[in-house]
Structure formats: C-alpha cells, structure tokens
Design goal:
Blueprint: H1 6-16, E1 20-24, H2 28-41, E2 45-49, H3 51-57, H4 59-70, E3 77-84, H5 87-95, E4 100-104, H6 110-126, E5 130-134, E6 140-142, E7 145-147, H7 156-166, E8 170-171, H8 190-200, E9 204-206, H9 214-223, E10 225-230, H10 232-252, H11 257-279
Parallel strand pairs: 1-2, 1-10, 2-3, 3-4, 4-5, 5-8, 9-10
Antiparallel strand pairs: 6-7
Helix pairs in contact: 2-4, 2-11, 3-4, 7-8, 10-11
C-alpha cells in the first residue's frame, strides 16, 4: 500500500467521530510497532517524522525505510512531516513522497504566515498531498522546535479567516495544550475546537496530548480533533523499555540485541494500541 494523503483519513474520522493517531516515530523499531498496532486494531494511522529525524537519516533514506515497512500495510497510512518551519525541507519531502506536511510558520506575522501557507497548500495539492496549518505556537519544545513560552492566541475570527483563505486541510489550534509532559493538569479551551469546526468544517489537530486523560481526549475528538498527535509518550515508552531491557541483560550477563528490539517493539505496540482504542479509531478499517 502506498501512503495516502491526510485528508483521505481525516474526512472519515470527522464524519465518524473518532481521532486518527499520529505517532512521531524515531526509527525502524518504533515504526514497525506502530504499524503492527494499527494492523491489529484495524485503525488508520499517521506516521509523523520530525525535521530532526528527516535530517538525521536523510530524506531519501528515511523514505525508503518507512515505505518498505508500510508496503504491506492493510490499513491506510499517512506519512506526515511534523512542525516544519523550513520551506526547503517541506518542498524536499513533498518531492520525496510525503503525503502531508505541517508548515509551522507561527513565528511569522499572521499575514506573512497566511501568504506563505497559501503557497505551501498549492505546492502540496499539486502532488496530491495535504497541509496542516497553524498560526499559534503550541507551548513546549519538541525535537528542537518550539518554545517554553506560550505564544499569543489569535481571535476566532483571525483563525477562521486563515483557515478559509489558505485552504489548509487541517488546523492546529492553541487551546492551552503543550508539548511534553504537563507539570500540572492543563486547563483546555474545549469550546474553541467546537467553534472553529462549526465555522470552517475543517478537521482540527490536537498537539500536546501526552498526559491528557482518556475523557479529555475523547471530548476533544468528538468536538473535531480528528488528528491526535502522540510524540512524548512514544519516546518515553521506547526509552524506558530500553532501560528496563538493558538492566535485565546486565543482571543475566546476556547481551542479545534482538531481545532489546523485541522489548522496545512490544512496549511501543501496547502504547499505540491503547491510544487507538481511546481515540475510537480501532475497528474503523473494515
């Protein structure tokens, strides 16, 4: 199966009232785990790559790895470039087979962000890919991009105008969410999601999901967050399972890399399956 564009899975999710999980994979093991969970749960899934991961592997090599792993997937798989402020990297990934990109230009003035997003949308749509847009930075640093300082929140009117004039396929609103682990329970503006969806009909993307309760996730999904990002949770599960596996190896005096890979994969698969069930995407692929 080739990668499908983001709008192909979000339209069904929005109509069906469920959220499609978007996992920030970091290597082949985490990718295999996410794809295995999606197959077991019969869930559409989004493989998200950070700019950092693209640069670490190189665009061509990373695409070859991910496309090879997803080749026999029996569920729809989107390949998405997450939080990218670089037009050069976006163009390179669109040429190289990515089917969705997030043009993260929130640091620009809204007018300039809008102007450039229009260009990105035209570029992406020309090759059958989708675009996620944003005009407010989501608090927290993720893969070297972002800030611990919250950016100014725009009015609903400004956000609606941006969505309608750019033609983005998905929009990431700031609703009090943050990347990374929350130091305290977040106070989220759930109504903002409902208002933006009602005014535009465009699916919303939820960032900063790690640490939210199942009830918070499910309420936001019902309100229009058809794309739900999971990054920190994957990284933490991956690293903690690695640490535990290595400790067991040390205790036994047995150093077997395939055992480490198996433990990593099992942990990430379990995490991914849990999120799919929470978001209601399990069983949506008939």
């Amino acid at each position: 199966m080739t990668f499908v564009p983001l709008n192909a899975v979000l339209a069904d999710a929005l109509a069906g009232g469920y959220g499609v999980p978007a996992f920030n994979i970091v290597n082949d093991v985490s990718t295999e785990a996410v794809l295995e969970a999606a197959a077991e749960e019969r869930s559409p899934v989004i493989l998200q790559t950070s700019v950092k991961t693209v640069r670490m592997y190189g665009r061509k090599k990373l695409y070859t790895i991910l496309a090879g792993l997803a080749e026999d997937a029996a569920v729809p798989v989107v390949l998405h470039l997450d939080h990218c402020p670089s037009r050069e990297v976006i163009s390179d990934c669109l040429r190289g087979g990515w089917t969705s990109v997030l043009f993260d230009a929130h640091e620009l003035e809204v007018a300039e962000n809008l102007r450039q997003t229009v260009e990105v949308v035209a570029e992406a749509h020309a090759v059958g890919a989708s675009v996620e847009g944003e005009i407010e930075g989501i608090q927290g640093v993720e893969d070297g991009i972002g800030s611990d300082d919250a950016s100014a929140q725009q009015t609903i009117e400004v956000s609606v105008d941006f969505i309608q004039r750019t033609g983005v396929d998905c929009f990431a609103p700031a609703i009090g969410n943050a990347h990374g682990q929350y130091k305290a329970a977040p106070v989220l503006d759930h109504q903002r999601v409902s208002d933006l969806l009602a005014a535009t009909g465009v699916p919303m993307a939820l960032h900063g999901g790690t640490g939210l309760s199942a009830e918070q996730f499910q309420d936001l999904v019902k309100r229009g967050c058809a794309k739900v990002n999971i990054s920190t949770a994957l990284k933490e599960v991956y690293m903690r399972s690695s640490l535990e596996s290595l400790k067991r190896s040390e205790e036994k005096g047995s150093w077997d890399p395939p055992t480490l890979f198996r433990d990593q994969k099992e942990a990430v698969t379990a995490m991914a399956r849990e999120h799919m069930r929470t978001f209601g995407s399990s069983g949506q692929v008939r």
